[in-house]
Amino acid sequence: MSALLFNPRAQFDFDQKPKTTKKPHSIINIGVVGFIFVLLMFSVLYQVLSLSPDHSHISLAQYNIKLNRPTAFNRANFPVINSLPTEPLANYSTKVPILMYHYTPANFEAQLQHLQSHGYTAISMGQLSNFLYTGGPLPTKPVVITFDDGFEDQLHSFELLKKYQMKATFYIILGGEDSNHCIGLTRTNLACGDSYLNWSQVKQLEDSGLIEIGAHTLNHADLPILNEQKQWQEITESKKRLEDMYNITVSTFAYPYGRYDQTTINLVKKAGFFTAVTTQSETVQTSLGRYTLPRVRDALLLP
Ligand SMILES: [Zn+2]
Description:
By secondary structure, the chain is an alpha/beta fold. It has 8 helices and 9 strands. Strand 4 (about 140-150), helix 5 (about 155-165) and strand 5 (about 170) form a beta-alpha-beta unit. The longest helix has 25 residues, at about 25-50. It is globular, with a radius of gyration of 24 Å. It starts with about 25 loop residues before the first helix and ends in a 17-residue tail after the last strand. The relative contact order is 0.16. Zinc ion (ZN) binds near residues 148, 149, 216, 220 and 256.
């Protein structure tokens, strides 16, 4: 299975008027104030104990479970992705550069400053999906920042994304037998492969609320050379295992080496992904092309 082995270097809120009585005003006022105070206390208690997702001590997963939603959703997507139709309502099209990175570029901070000074707003793939499926709103100059492969080096990028409060999507490889456990999130063979983000580091990304997690297969497989059953396993298992590990919904996929064929696209769609990204160079995104979204490599080239 050496052909499947990943080679990182090869690419890239009552108010009640008191009834008029003969009681002195001060007593009435005390009664009203007391009543309002009690109401306020109940209101505060309700907010704290119940369902607001803005209370960070309640995880999004718990929030969704309380609301009887089918599953928890990735915070970077929330609340957009859980209401999308299965097919786009029309063929929407607009310019949204999707930036693709593997390792943290030496000038990554300069690239982020360029995006900021040129009025770009970094959105999640979930927000782009909302546009592609419903024509939902986007900021004036949207940009999507993506990282492939889940190298440990990407923690440097994460620190800069946090500094500039920019969203990004990280496409994570799971790893497994077919890659001799040399690569990905579950890498155990340290004698081969590169350094990859581990379970708790990816959890850290997800917990930040800035990073959406996407799937990039189990073994960084060259999908179109595999039979359909094997492709299905690489595509669906990577999605399911990330979802189970982090209690999220993984709705976007990246083709390893940017390689796919029509069977691959059909399987990615059937697996329940809303979008998939390639390595083709273009900045216009369309609903019809939602499973072959193109990406560009350098933010400094964006006007
Ligand atoms: Zn890759």
